[in-house]
Amino acid sequence: MKMTIQFFTSKIKYIVLIYAVIQLILIFTTDISYKSDSLYYYNLAQDCIESNEFYPASAHIYEDYIVAPLYVNVLIIILMIYNSTTLISLFNLALVLLTILNLYKITLRIFSIDAAQLTILYYVFYVNTLGLVLQNYTDLFFLSLVLTSIYLYLQRTNLALFISGIFLGASITVRPVGWALLIAFILIHFVAFIKNKSFLLNRKFIYAGTLFFIIAFGLLTYSQFGRFEFTSTTGPINLLLGANEDATGGFNSRVLETGKAGYIDDSISITYIQRGEFYKEQAINWIGQNPEKWLLLAPMKIFHTFGWDDISLSALPGFDDTNFARVIRIIFTEGDFNKALPDSTVFEKFIYLLVLVISHMYYFFLIIVVIAGIYNYFKRKEYNEVINLILIFCALAILMIMVTVGAPRYKYPVIILMIPIAANYFKQKFSVRQNTNE
User: Fold this and answer.
1) 10 Å Cβ neighbour count for 368?
2) In tens digits, what is the pLDDT along the chain, a chain of 438 residues?
3) Is the whole model's pTM more than 0.85, yes or no?
């Protein structure tokens, strides 16, 4: 085992190169067809290109909500250069390579070169990323912004801290969970102030950068849209999805059907602001009347997020509309493989199950090592500012899921940010065993 790990880590540059080549092959040989949120972001960008506006365009006042405004505007720029899904995937590949670089440098800074190399191996073998490169989700972009912010924070110079704040602010304009990173920074600085009885003045630059980007981006939106919007307004609908009579903890659109809590009659003339107020009022009223039910849904939201890992894997073997959790449920409850995977050959069923089962075995291994790494960190009573920053961010992100609604994709930034902790723990335990055996 030791020699195997040493072999892979010593060839890390070649492994990353092969990984990038595999992604390029997938990008240029896969017939990309967006669905769900991927298609929604893509259509928003195309609407803006047709109307010669940036997002949100004037017509979007009647959308359900404003979503990931920075990301959609980046899509607009990409599609204006070359209107093809291929260019979006190439952009995703660039984000993946940036993520690998940031993960390596951050892990190297807080742990060791061995842990950094193992971190990259863990990331490369987490094959959900291969599927995400072919999608049009916010996850890769959001994660790259967060990691870049953390890496720049490690540089400690005034300029680096200011730019770190800019990337932090940019993450908030992509996904509201970016607020969790800002709160994490505030908390670690507050703890440092309590311990040292003084505040390092240059830390103010990170908050200045965050404020600068949010105000600048909000003003740009205001100049063309007439409203100071700088982040997604999806909070109310997500709150309602996790707080209604039909809530399961995961995404369930039944709440929006006729006669249900989220149904809006004559919704075409309703602005996203009015929708948000309506959804929030409905959710808060239900929580007030059913506090016990709402609290009991929190573990189910965690289960829907972490219980399985089909973020983008089903799309890799060509089953775009398939959900692995649903497939397993049908197989075990009904024993009907044809119903679980309709319109597919025996070989295609075999490949699908092989890919998903192996990837889930790896995923649960990773979860176990992450938990063990966190436990070991607290057991040793160590203090590392960046590890604390990551742990607080992840804890707050999970809390936001528990308050709103769970989905497998929501855990992606959390899992990736935890990989360095898992890699360092595995390296430490493996080294101890080897030394003991020797």
Assistant:
1) 11
2) 555 556 556 678 889 999 999 999 999 998 888 888 999 999 999 999 999 999 999 999 999 999 999 999 999 999 999 999 999 999 999 999 999 999 999 999 999 999 999 999 999 999 999 889 999 999 999 999 999 999 999 998 999 999 999 999 999 999 999 999 999 999 999 988 888 776 676 788 999 999 999 999 999 999 999 999 999 999 999 999 999 999 999 988 889 888 898 998 877 789 999 999 999 999 999 999 999 999 999 999 999 999 989 888 888 777 777 788 888 888 888 888 888 888 888 888 898 899 899 999 999 999 999 999 999 999 988 888 999 999 999 999 999 999 999 999 999 999 999 999 999 998 887 664 444 444
3) yes
CB atoms within 10 A of CB 269: 8
Classify the phi-psi angles of 156: left when phi > 0, otherwise alpha if psi is within -120 to 50, otherwise beta.
left
Residue 57 is given by DSSP the state P
Residue 152 and residue 47 in contact, taking contact as beta carbons nearer than 8 Å: no
Q: How many CA atoms lie within 13 A of 72 on its CB side?
A: 29
Residues 405 and 241 sit within 8 Å (Cβ to Cβ): yes
Which of 427, 399, 404 has its CA nearest to residue 414?
399
If phi over 0 gives left and psi between -120 and 50 gives alpha, with beta otherwise, what is residue 55?
Answer: beta
CA 346/CA 332 separation, integer angstroms: 18
Kindly report the backbone phi and psi dihedral angles of residue 250, in degrees, each rounded to the nearest multiple of 5, phi listed first: -110, -175
In sequence order, what are the residues at sequence separation of 6 or more whose Cβ sits closer than 8 angstroms to the Cβ of residue 187? 392
Distance CA 322, CA 355 (A): 13
Helix boundaries (H) for 343-411: 346-379, 385-403
Dist. CA 406–CA 408, nearest whole Å: 7
Contact 206, 186 (CB under 8 A): no
